[in-house]
Amino acid sequence: MFAPWTIACAPSITTSDEGRKFHEFVPQCGIIRPRRGKQWSRSLWRISNGRARRFRRSSGRRRFSRASRSRQRLGIYKARAAFTLLYRLGEEAKRRGVALTSSGNFATAFAYMGRWLGVPTALVMMRRTSPFKAEQVARFGGEIVWCEDRFEARFETLRRLEVERGLLTINHMEDPNVVIGHGTIGLELLEQLPEVGTVLVPISTGGLIAGIALVLKERDPRTSVIGVQPEGAQATYLSFKAGTIVTIPETRTICDALTATRPGTLMFSLIQRYVDDVVVVSDEDVAEAVAWLAREEKLVVEPSGAVGVAALRSGRATPRGPTIALLSGGNIAPAHFAQFLTTSSARA
Ligand SMILES: Cc1ncc(COP(=O)(O)O)c(C=O)c1O
Q1: What does the pLDDT read at residue 61?
Q2: Edge-first strand listing for the sheet containing 323-327
Q3: Residue of 177, 178, 208 best suited for mutating to test ligand 1, as the one with most atoms within 8 Å of CB
Q4: Which of 1, 82, 239, 252 is the least crowded, having the fewest Cβ atoms under 10 Å away?
Q5: Residue 294 CA to ligand 1 centre (angstroms)
Q6: Sequence-ordered alpha helix ranges (H) in 174-282
């Protein structure tokens, strides 16, 4: 059995064959460095397309840096895991096609990477999925398979596709390739800010934080990794506090990508091992953070991607040292985004 934590002991997964291919082919995976002589701890930086820029304003409470995965080509970081999963498939599975379930962002990345690698993809999504995200999936040629609005229904539908159509189904909550793919973000953060003290990472099923925490902690156990969930979808928060996986009956939050009713078993074991704390933020905190990022930093970040900034600005997280809030996604319909600007007032 593959032991995911070994990837951090390797010199770098970017030196492996998959890593080389990844960096060769995936435009949004460029390594970005701060400008020479600038201190990340003193300045606010924006990371986009190979350039780091000083932020316009600091947050009133504290200065911190952001890693804007929301500004990547698909508006989301998930191409890393999608590539790793699809690239490593056997030829037969690549020919027949694969199925995965997602709240929208993973589906977009999977459809995009599937088209690029020539693998047919079927994406199981709940009917309440944001139409904006569904459109993106269709644009990249992914087949959408709708299911009822229940987290477990997504996995039941996946199993049906496996039986009825012979598709290879991927459970992204338990797949080590997801950890490897997202681990590349940890490697990038280390390249960009080697003295990083704290990283705040949004959590749904736990794959994103598992990959990042594994890389950062294996390199330096003093780095603090804090997970953030919305109050209305706090399954990992409850599990972390209980020391065992807790399943919640349903989720209710404006963060439409953070809808897991439980963390994955593999992901939770890595979270227990590597994550320092998990905190929750209210939907009001998130709305304020989305408005603040737009008004002060001119950034389009979807609510799920803004929970780290929400935790810092509301004081719910206590970071140590140079701090990074990962802006994990920017896929939000313009009209929906406008609502945040008109109804939420950003605090100073
Ligand atoms: C924008 C965004 N941020 C964070 C996450 C959390 O990812 P994970 O399920 O790996 O915890 C997701 C998952 O879909 C997402 O779309």
Answers
A1: 45
A2: 65-68, 323-327, 198-202, 224-230, 277-281
A3: 208
A4: 1
A5: 20
A6: 176-192, 207-219, 235-242, 265-274
Question: Which residue out of 175, 258, 300 has the highest number of ligand 1 atoms within 8 Å of its CB and is therefore the one to mutate?
Answer: 258
- CB count, 10 Å around CB of 21? 13
**Ligand 1 centroid distance, CA of 36 (Å):** 32
Q: Which fold has domain 79-170?
A: Rossmann fold (3.40.50)
Buried b (16+ CB within 10 A) or exposed e, 243-267: eebbebeebebbbbbbbbbbbbebb
User: For position 74, what pLDDT does the model report?
Assistant: 72
Ligand 1 atom closest to 329 (CA): 1
**Is the CB of residue 260 less than 8 Å from the CB of residue 233?**
yes
pLDDT for the residue 80: 77
Given the CA of residue 204, which atom of ligand 1 is nearest to it?
11
pLDDT computed for residue 345 by the predictor: 67
Residue owning the nearest CA to atom 12 of ligand 1? 257
In total, the chain counts a number of residues equal to 348
Question: What pLDDT is stored for residue 18 in this prediction?
Answer: 41
Phi/psi at 79 (5° precision): -55, -30
- Taking the chain (348 residues) in runs of 10, the rounded mean pLDDT of each run is 23 35 34 32 28 41 53 69 85 93 92 90 95 92 95 94 92 87 80 83 95 87 96 98 97 95 94 96 96 85 92 90 85 92 72
Using CA atoms, how far apart are residues 320 and 324, in angstroms rounded to an integer? 10
Encoded tokens for 323:
């701090």
C-alpha closest to that of 22 among 138, 216, 183: 183
The binding-site residues of ligand 1, defined as CB within 6 angstroms of any ligand atom, are 76, 103, 105-106, 202-208, 257-258, 302, 304-305, 328-329
Ligand 1 midpoint to CA 234 (Å): 13
Q: Which residue spans of the chain are classified as CATH 3.40.50.1100?
A: 9-71+176-343, 79-170
Ligand 1, from 304, 327, 337: best to mutate by most atoms within 8 Å of Cβ? 304
Distance CA 203, CA 247 (A): 15
